[in-house]
Design a protein that fits this description.
The complex is a heterodimer of chains A (463) and B (295). Chain A is of the alpha/beta class and 463 residues long. Chain A has two domains: 58-171 and 333-392, 3-Layer(aba) Sandwich (D-Maltodextrin-Binding Protein, domain 2); 174-331 and 430-462, Periplasmic binding protein-like II (D-Maltodextrin-Binding Protein, domain 2). In chain A, 48% of the residues lie in helices and 14% in strands. Chain A is globular and about 65 Å long. Chain A starts with a helix and ends with a helix. With 295 residues, chain B is mainly α. Chain B has 13 helices and two strands, in the order H-E-E-H-H-H-H-H-H-H-H-H-H-H-H. Chain B has helices at residues 10-38, 56-62, 65-96, 103-110, 112-115, 118-129, 135-141, 156-181, 185-193, 198-226, 230-236, 247-257, 261-289; strands spanning 41-42, 51-52. The longest helix of chain B is centred in the N-terminal third of the chain and has 32 residues, at 65-96. The chains are: A alpha/beta (463), B mainly alpha (295). Chains A and B meet through helix 1, helix 2, helix 4, helix 19 and helix 20 of A and helix 1 of B.
């Protein structure tokens, strides 16, 4: 009797598990392959198989624009597109960290996204390899070709000769320095590492809780994006042109050691919060007058209007001085649009084209210094220049930002080496470079040994 | 008294059991089986066909120093926070078991930290402990302690344990308080008549009477703290220098940050097995304590 009961219960369990197992990996893989195949063919009109009935089409947008004004602008743009074309556009706002997971886990399902408005996406190569993103060269051509963009921005999206991303703004890591503090101390803008250290030292008054600078040392995206600037300012390379790891090789290793030692010296002029600092801590320290220098995007200027209006006219944007004084360095970043393979790919392309032609300035206006226009003619336009916060910070933010974009030594983990591959994505998402900074600054480990260990770890990760 | 199930009872038993078992299968067994399956594969995305690697992930895991280091951090975190929760939980329960004005209000207020969501707990404590403007840092300033970093390499684990204790002790208190209500008052009266002091009463009556509850609480809270992710992740993200990187945090980092999905899931599977071993030991001990009868 007991045996019989046990068998019946076991059957129920097995059946319920089987019922829940859903689509198998094989099926999903098949779906992916189908979508990949659809890359080079004209996809069927979107909707529920209703041919060209646009009212049936719903475009799902994954947007990483979480700040209130850009989020509102995105929603309004979506509504306007629906009013004009009858195509419903649903904007789902999410953290950038969640986007990659959401996009790929919904890919091939009825809930998949059609367009991504994402921040600096180091994992683009992986998305491309998996057939998730569609090439956008045809859209770029319709917008006027690649020449309409600032040249550095075209570096990032080219993969296997095709572009998979249209940058809508540039987010280089910008240094913000308190010009009133410089004046007070009788100092000028630092132009090399020695001068920079002197300025940071002069800014520091620990008794009164004043520090030279704050850099994000917490393991995370901010550290990957900002703190790596110390490498680029000394021409440190992670990969060579053949994508071999050269961080621990010859002169390059020496330069990496110098960069880490420079960071150690800077650490003396940072508050203890730097150890756990991410984006919010940078803003808090700069707005609160605790530090005289930090890095951020143009958002620091935009948000200061509300959060720290007293700072107006007291700061200026600069890059990180290069060691030898030969100009400035910065880390690349952008926000861009990706189109996701699937049944709505053509409709998504139409939407993106319409967005850039008709509504680009509307989005830029929502955070005009943060959304530094990726299209040069927009930066030059009177409409952009007349936006209130652009006008307010024209000399202190917009002009120096453009100068940095055009003149500074620009690099990033995802730009390391000769061409974008999954290797850079692996290095970026492993946060191994931020861990290296922590080991030297917080763990007091020998920079030379840490570089050797890190280089070997990278080799293991990408082999 | 045990009652033997007869044939005519079967439909009734099934009607009662099957809905719960299906729910259990869907929410517990199915994900567990899927996790076990994922741990045998290698994949860097959640789509496409993963590569079957057998037990390779586990072989790699057991050779990974990082894993053993994180396991020890997890045991320190879980062990440390459970010990404090139990000690403080008993102390507060004893206090709340006394008669005094405002006892009911205090009993209600004690539960508050437990019902506050983890995100609110972490943000509030991060503010309070902030080196620059935190109220606790200000308070320490009155004693000449300035710029104290609660999230430094040396302090971060202690801070996370203490915040966890603050957040979860109320649950332990409630359970002990309920247990104390079941201890007959006359046992204390008799002991007092025999000249036993408060400490002797506590040692010889309260603790023995609460021991089954203590065992349960240690096991349950141990499992919960071993698997605790949100509070640690939100507080420190596992840092600095990976000092608070417990196994759930490592699992998340590998699976959802680095997209080493099979490897990340294999950590979760090993965590599950560790907890299973603890649970089996506990059940055996309980069985022995109950004189070998089935519990």
């Amino acid at each position: 009797m007991k045996k019989g009961l046990a068998i019946v219960l076991a059957m129920f369990l097995i059946l319920s598990i089987a019922a829940c197992s859903g689509k198998s990996n094989d099926e999903q893989s098949q779906n992916t392959q189908n979508n990949q195949a659809g890359n080079d063919t004209t996809p069927a009109p979107s909707g529920s198989g209703n041919g060209g009935d646009k009212k049936q089409v719903t475009l799902r947008i994954a947007s990483a624009e979480t700040a209130a004004d850009p989020k509102k602008a995105m929603e309004e743009i979506a509504q306007e597109y629906e009013q004009q074309t009858g195509v419903k556009v649903v904007v789902e706002t999410m953290n950038l960290d969640d986007m990659y997971l959401k996009v790929q886990s919904t890919f091939g399902t009825s809930a998949q996204y059609d367009v991504m408005f994402s921040g600096y996406l180091g994992l683009l190569t992986t998305l491309k390899e998996k057939g998730i993103v569609a090439p956008v060269d045809d859209v770029i051509e319709k917008l006027g070709g690649k020449d309409i963009f600032y040249s550095p921005t075209t570096l990032q999206p080219i993969l296997d000769g095709k572009s998979y991303r249209i940058p809508y703004d540039l987010n280089y890591a910008l240094g913000y320095i308190r010009t009133d503090w410089l004046q007070e101390k009788g100092l000028s803008m630092p132009t090399n590492w020695d001068e920079f250290l002197n300025v940071m030292k002069a800014f520091t008054d620990k008794k009164n809780n004043k520090y030279g600078l704050i850099l994000p040392l917490k393991i995370g995206g901010a550290n990957n994006w900002i703190t790596t600037s110390v490498f680029w300012a000394n021409d440190v390379e992670i990969f060579d042109d053949q994508m071999n790891v050269i961080l621990d090789q010859g002169d390059n290793k020496q330069r990496a050691i110098e960069s880490l030692n420079f960071l150690k010296e800077l650490n003396q002029y940072m508050p203890v919060e730097a150890e756990n600092a991410d984006f919010p801590e940078l803003l808090a320290a700069f707005y609160g007058g605790q530090v005289g220098f930090t890095f951020y995007s143009g958002r620091l200027a935009d948000a200061s209007v509300q959060s720290a209006p007293d700072l107006a006219g007291k700061f200026q944007v600069m890059g990180l001085p290069r060691k030898d004084g030969n100009g400035y360095a910065t880390t690349y970043g952008d926000d861009g649009v990706n189109i996701i393979n699937g049944p709505n790919v053509e409709e998504a392309k139409k939407f993106v084209e319409w967005f850039f032609k008709e509504k680009y300035l509307k989005l830029v206006a929502a955070a005009p210094n943060a959304f530094f226009p990726s299209i040069s003619s927009v930066y030059e336009s009177e409409e952009y220049k007349s936006l209130p916060t652009v006008k307010q910070f024209w000399n202190d933010v917009a002009v120096p930002q453009q100068k940095i974009i055009q003149e500074a030594k620009v690099n990033a983990i995802s730009l390391a080496g000769s061409e974008p591959t999954e290797k850079q994505s692996v290095v970026e998402s492993s946060f191994i470079i931020p861990k290296m900074f922590q080991r030297v600054l917080i763990g007091n480990e020998d920079p030379s040994k840490v570089i050797d260990a890190t280089a070997n770890e990278i080799r293991n990760m990408i082999k | 008294m045990q009652h033997k199930i007869k044939r005519r009872d079967v439909p009734f038993v099934l009607v009662n059991l099957v809905p719960g078992l299906i729910l259990f299968a869907v929410t517990v067994i199915f994900p567990a089986v899927m996790a076990l399956r994922y741990s045998l594969y290698e994949s860097d995305t959640f789509i496409g066909k993963p590569k079957f690697v057998g037990l390779h992930n586990f072989a790699e895991l057991f050779q990974d120093k990082h894993f053993w280091s994180d396991l020890s951090k997890t045991l320190i975190y879980a062990g440390g926070s459970v010990v404090f929760q139990v000690v403080l939980g008993i102390a507060i329960a004893l206090l709340l078991n006394q008669r005094f004005a405002g006892r009911s209000f205090l009993r209600g207020a004690t539960v508050l930290p437990y019902i506050v969501p983890s995100i609110v707990v972490t943000i509030t404590w991060q503010w309070m402990l902030n080196t620059n403007y935190g109220v606790i840092s200000k308070f320490l300033g009155y004693f000449g302690v300035y710029q104290f970093n609660f999230f430094s390499v040396d302090m971060s684990m202690i801070t996370v344990v203490l915040v966890s204790v603050w957040s979860f002790t109320p649950f332990v208190t409630l359970v002990f308080l309920a247990g104390l209500q079941t201890v007959p008052e006359d046992m204390y009266e008799s002991a007092a008549l025999d000249g036993a002091g408060k400490w002797t009463q506590f040692r010889t009556i309260t603790i023995p009477m609460l021991s089954p509850i203590i065992a349960n609480i240690v096991l349950l809270r141990g499992i919960w703290m071993f698997n605790k992710f949100d509070l640690v992740w939100l507080m420190t993200g596992g840092g600095p220098l990976e000092r608070t990187e417990t196994l759930p945090v490592t699992t998340y980092i590998y699976t959802f940050s680095q997209y080493k999905i099979g490897y990340g899931v294999s950590i979760a599977v090993v965590s599950f097995l560790i907890m299973l071993i603890f649970m089996l030991i506990y059940l055996r001990l309980m069985n022995r304590a109950n004189g070998g009868t089935r519990t």
